[in-house]
Amino acid sequence: MNFSGLKGNYFLLFVNKSFLASRRPATPVSARPIPQVHGRMNHDSRPRRWNTVSGIPLKSFYSAEDVPAEHRRIMDAAPGAAPFHRGAYATGYRTKAWRIFQLSGFGKPEDENERIKFLLANGETGFLMEHDRNTADHCYNVDHPDVLARREDVGLTGAVMQSVRDIAICMDGLPIESTYGHAGGAVVQHAPFALAGYWTVAKRRGLDLRTLAGTGQSDFFLTYLGCVTKQQIPTPAGLRFNADIMEFCSKHLPRWVPVSIAGYNGADSGLNAFQELGALFANAVEYLDEIKRRGSMSLEEAARGCGGVSFRMSMDIIEEACKLRAARLMWTQLLERRYGITNPKVANLRIHCVTAGSMMTWQQPLNNIVRGTLMALAGVLGGVQSLGVSGYDEALSIPSEHAHQMSVRIQQVLQNETNLAAVTDPLGGSYYVETLTAQLVERAWQFFDEIEQQGGFLATLDSGWLHARAAENQHAEFMAQDSGERVVVGVTDFREDISPYEVDGFMGVDDAFDVAIARLEEVRRTRGERRAGDALRELERVCRGSDNIMPAMMEALDAEVTLGEVGDVWRGVFGDWNTPIQT
Amino acid sequence: MTTAPKRILMAKTGLDGHWRGPTIVARALRDAGFEVIMVGMVTADEVVRAAIDEDVDLVGLNIGGHVDVAERAIAAIREARPELPIFCGGVVPPWAKKRLEEKGVEVYPPGSQLPEIVDAARRLTRWQAD
């Protein structure tokens, strides 16, 4: 179906009415069967260890003497000043609300464009472009045999964008000159394509790249730990790509966050709170050490560039809020101790959070609205700059329009109705919170040291050491459900055999593949073949040498080189990562 | 009486590399005494070849994409080895779960408990480890 002619209020009304209708019970209440509730019900007799989710033992209350002496000395520091654990900015949300920033995208580029406009119209304050996982993450065109064999999957998790023309359709009418945009490119080998595509569209609109604000991702946690693709450039090539992007941004896009380390993807794979922290900073030092080795740009500028990170917010909400306080403290410590950087404009870590997708349940999915709210609250209490809330249908499908709207509304309620914006670091000074913050910092540095002893972050990805740590925790989490120690409402306990409040899951569109094939053929038929060929050869030449790849990528995208052709260059020059895990 | 352990092939039908779900399930099945062969992301043809080569007693499909793609794999397995039982897990919306169940495929969506899945594997392979 194509709703492109039905934009605006009429369309919204149509969707909302059908949503309500599907929830209106067909039979009168008195005639409906009473649901039987299953699972354990009596909690009082259950054996329980009182720990945080990451295993830190908890007392039943905390006093001043619990706060470690060293931490007590920094407790009274103000937000916006070193060591920044109390907040990145002095006036917090009074002067700047956190950015409402939702993952979005599916189907054809125009489907994604319509959804992004829907979110912006509902009050989203930045936008995020998801690319199709099958094609983008693998740098395959849609006619690659591995994609052809799964044609119905195409467009399910993001729009199919094989050339700058597709990216232009996805960005059509989006106010990129005034709105913070995420170009996509979450997976390392895809980032140069997604970024160069976004920037090329901006240039074609006549915008000065120096004024453009936004981010990419190029995340090692996603690429090499959380969502391991069938083919991927090896980690040293990934490091080169990210350092090239950082250098390119320092020259041409000073307002752009070049790479964004996403601890989220480590945490949702199984790393606990202090492991997520330790591993994230072990990743950051790989980037900064590489930039230092190159000596091609200011280290302060590089630190500022990779100081926009993301964490996962999960259900142990006090531990998660403390994790963000710990993260800011650790970044300040790391920059000073390892690189001698104390500039407060660099040392204040800026944090994006996404609520844990894996905490969203398939059963009784409307309960996930509550979970999303609580996890978002943890992020706000911890002082996020930017936040995405998973859809309540996360375990069923990509978000429906209504689920997406709810994710925005949850944040708007928190911003406007709770008075949370009034006071920065509202948990600061709590004996419990300060103690737990200090404990997380201590354990996270220990984990950081373990990674360094393994040869560094990249080495732990190559060897599978980090995957093993994640898998241990996954296993323990499920064993705790088995034993009854971990309760998930509607899943382990309080289960219903029938429920009138079901959610269908979003269906997406069914023409993404056919349209992508047609557009790929059109690009091949109508582009300047000579220029595209020259651009591809130049890209390959640069890859075989040591120059920055991004100028050649910019020319390739402008010359309408396709995604699969870029991927062929990567595969020919860099080969394939030797995956340490069996999936 | 001791019988040789039953063999389970675990495969992903999509090109989505999230490995958390299938890895947890594979470990639980191994802990319960099954031999688990993991082949990662495979097409319909590849999953059939692996099922025959490995002479498995059960196929577990992790669906990380559209149910149509899983159904193509299921049809190919049914054609080659009609008696071979199949079960599925992953992000499966309720309508897709229903469609697969109508085809005789058991579906374990997110939130399924590991003992349920292990019990299903025992039942489908008619095997009880000692």
Fold and architecture overview:
The complex is a heterodimer of chains A (583) and B (130). Chain A is 48% helix and 6% strand. Chain A is mostly helical and 583 residues long. In chain A, helix 11 packs across helix 17 and helix 13 (317-339) runs parallel beside helix 15. The two termini of chain A are 35 Å apart. A five-stranded parallel β-sheet of chain B has the order 2-1-3-4-5, with helices on both faces. In chain B, strand 1 (7-12), helix 1 and strand 2 (35-41) form a beta-alpha-beta unit. The mean pLDDT of chain B is 92. The A-B interface holds A 133-134, 137-138, 146-147, 149-150, 152-153, 156-157, 226-230, 268-270, 358, 361-363, 395-397, 470-471, 474-475, 478, 481-482, 488, 490-492, 502-506, 581-583 and B 12-20, 22-24, 27-28, 38, 40-41, 43-45, 65-66, 68-69, 91-96, 109-111, 113-115.
List its traits.
heterodimer; A: 583 residues; mainly alpha; TIM Barrel; five-stranded parallel beta sheet; four-stranded parallel beta sheet; 23 helices; 48% helix; globular; disordered N terminus; B: 130 residues; alpha/beta; Rossmann fold; 44% helix; 21% strand
